[in-house]
Amino acid sequence: MQHDEAEITFAASETAQPAEGNGAEVFQQAILAKLTYNVGTNPAHATDHDWFTATALAVRDRVMDRWMVSKGFNQAGHKHICYFSLEFLIGQLLSDTLNNLRLTDCVREALAGLGVDLDRIRAIEPDAALGNGGLGRLAACFMESMASLELPAYGYGIRYEHGLFRQGLRDGWQQELPEDWLVRGNPWEFERSDLVYQVPFGGSIEKMSTSGGPTGFVWRPAETVQAAAFDTPVVGWRGRHVNTLRLWSARAAEPLRLDAFNSGDHVGALADRTKAEAISRVLYPGDETEAGRELRLRQEFFFTSASLQDLLARHTRLHGDLNTLPDHAAIQMNDTHPALAVAELMRLLIDEHALAWDEAWSITTRTLNYTNHTLMPEALERWPVSLMERLLPRHLQIIYHINWLHLEPLIRRSADVELIKAVSVIDESQGRYVRMGHLAFIGAHKVNGVSALHTGLMRQTVFRDLNALYPDRIVNKTNGITFRRWLHQANPQLTHLLTRELGEAVLDDPGALIKLERLADDSAFQDCFRNQRHASKVNLAKIVAERTGVQIDPGALFDVHIKRIHEYKRQILNILEVIALYDAIRSEPERNWVPRVKIFAGKAAASYHRAKLIIKLANDVARIINSDPAASGRLKVVFLPNYNVSLAEVIIPAADLSEQISTAGMEASGTGNMKLALNGALTIGTLDGANIEIRECVGADNIFIFGMTAEEVETYRKAQMHRDRSRWSPRFERAINLMTSGIFSPDDPHRFDTLAHALSSDDAFMVAADFDSYWATQRRVDELWQQPSAWSRASVLNTSRVGWFSSDRTIREYADEIWKVPV
Ligand code: TH1
To answer: What family classification does the UniProt entry report for this protein (predicted)?
Structure first.
């Protein structure tokens, strides 16, 4: 949405301006002023961290006027988006902000004049790791795209004091270390001390009026927690628009019990505060399976309630009538974590704002939308009715009524009991649970999946019956990534080459990448392309050496598997192929093997023992192979610890091969696959998630597809073939035997028996079934690598043909079809 200055109510000129101009000298003065007056030091004593803070503050000043203007615009009656997400995996902000403001060179020069290196100080910034993986990173990409498209938007989430744990490796085992990104202060955020909401919990409900129905009750909560707002500006491309990410921090509502404190009960006086504040203490390190229990539910309600209260307060202030809410706001629920919004918005409208049920339901269902990110049964959120009753009694009552109104027409027409059970919000098959996916579905205007395959599977499986009742509700919105971070900023070498060949316009329009196609066969261009990639590989090799002590050759094929460690993502398939390859190299040392470096990175949920054992396996295999002269110059294996956004930014530009090898039907979309293809890596992958759409874009000749399709996986499973060991190929059998032989774990030969046992008794992720096809496809990769020009051609075509995966495209689709806002 383009907006001109004239319609802006809060004009920039009314606000204080920072020093005029953006020249390096002006910046130098600004940074020095911040160093003195905000950080409280001087150049002679400043540490790198002091310089980082001073620079960030000086850069932040350049955002403020635009932020104020954008806020005025956002509140001038335009419909705005509220993106509700328990996770925002942001990473560092300095480079992003500088890049979007086009100030990188200017600030580099300013700092150089002060004897400070920009690259050194930007490395100091801690990652804002307020997310586990793809879901949280998607939220961060969407925030950036919405700002870049000048779409009025707020992100709402939790200001965790501790983000995702830092991963250490001790003797190859994952260690979870606390993460404390806030200890040295956060220069980007603003605490809004006047913006505090009360979030109630527990207690009981009382009937107030004699009229029947769900209204006329009051909730008498036992406890209240305060939600305090912290705002971070989200700067769009070229700084044209700045949105707000509003994160809530939990505080005790009760004042400190001074009487108890003074009478010596120091711990007791603080106990309630500690409990309340625990809500925003840590991010749950649960990627899909590992949900915490009561605290997790408290987190979900806490941020959902505070965000809705904030939204209603804003709407009431600006527009008065709550019936017009859907005309001015669209809420996107990122997975079911904010699904309590369905019940909480109803509660606020009927209990606090005295609306009638039907009126409130119409507002609710026209405002809310829901994105589903997984169909894995263990990841579908359900809360025990008993817990909900204790923590949120009024919400449970509202949910029951929603469910009644939803089921009643079916009961009236004597629908099949099985159908009623299947679509009920309450799951009564074993104990009683609230199905959050069902609640979100029923309360939403639109429900979307995140890739074509995933959306199709939503319609056929988990939401089949709900889809039949509400046939137009499910839509597809294939994920995307922001090119500003994942190309321009992470890969300046490639970006430089692209702007040289295609002009600056390619920075504004990802569609312009397609013009690169004509250079795919141009050998001079291929040389430039390879040189640029080589520089990124040298850079990664240096980091690998620093962090793992392993020397890798930048001339080798860099084969990269980076993502959360999970059985369905099948890191073990890759490791078993490594073992088989090592075995083959040892038996035929004289063969002309393609030199490869296998690079793994990723975290396992702390309580996911099998995933942690897979990390240990990768490290054990790496240790043996890397020290074997027979493998030298042919095969190296590295596990880079503490995978995060910043590390991804270094690995991705250096990757030749992108491993996207999940069991078909299990990875809803993937987004790392897009980042790697954009940066010129070829994909080896299954027909899963967005891999399918990547193949459509890059062409089947420029991607390595292997393995069973989602449909074949289903058939295979139904026939129980995944339990049949006699189907194992000799090569697979041999790899398993080597894994359990103790050659990789001489200190504990049986260490990996449980992994082998799992694969032989119930190979739920179809590792054995896909192994041979994977092996054969890896050998096709070897062949192509031996033809450098053909490889480079495919690589260039990948970069040029994946413009469609820009999150700008995804956001335009949401705006068009779900939010109904102009872009
Ligand atoms: C991921 C999906 O696994 C991935 O395929 C997808 O690209 C990404 O979301 C973005 O759409 C998910 N992450 C989580 C995290 C939690 C629960 C469910 C999912 S699905 C905590």
So the answer is: Belongs to the glycogen phosphorylase family.
Q: What is the pLDDT of residues 552-602, one digit of tens each?
A: 999 999 999 999 999 999 999 999 999 999 999 999 999 999 999 999 999
State the pLDDT at residue 526.
98
What are the structure tokens assigned to 802, written together? Answer: 């994946």
Instruction: Please provide the DSSP assignment of 391-413 as one string.
Output: H-HHHHHHHHHHHHHHHHHHHHT
CB of 144 within 6 A of ligand 1: the answer is no
Is the pTM here over 0.90, yes or no? yes
* Residue 612 annotated among the catalytic residues of the structure: no
> Is the reported ipTM for this assembly greater than 0.90?
yes
Give which of 656, 668, 660, 666 is closest to 686, Cα–Cα: 660
First to last CA, the chain: 4
The radius of gyration of the chain from alpha carbons, rounded to an integer in Å, stands at 27
563 catalytic per annotation? yes
Of the residues 34, 122, 675, 722, only one is catalytic, namely 675
Q: Considering the domain delimited by 557-802, tell me its CATH architecture.
A: 3-Layer(aba) Sandwich (3.40)
Name the amino acid, one letter, at 583: D
* Count of positions (residues) in the chain: 823
Ligand 1 site, residue 133, Cβ cutoff 6 A? yes
Topology match between the domains 77-92+127-471 and 557-802: yes
Mutate to test the pocket of ligand 1, among 130, 284, 374, 676 (most ligand atoms within 8 A of CB): 374
455 lines ligand 1 (CB under 6 A): no
Residues of the chain with pLDDT below 70 are 1-22, 210-212, 285-292
Q: Is there a catalytic annotation at residue 537? A: no
Answer yes or no: 569 catalytic. Answer: yes
Residues 6 or more apart from 403 whose CB is under 8 A from it?
Answer: 424, 425, 426
Cα 471 to averaged position of ligand 1 atoms, centre (Å): 24
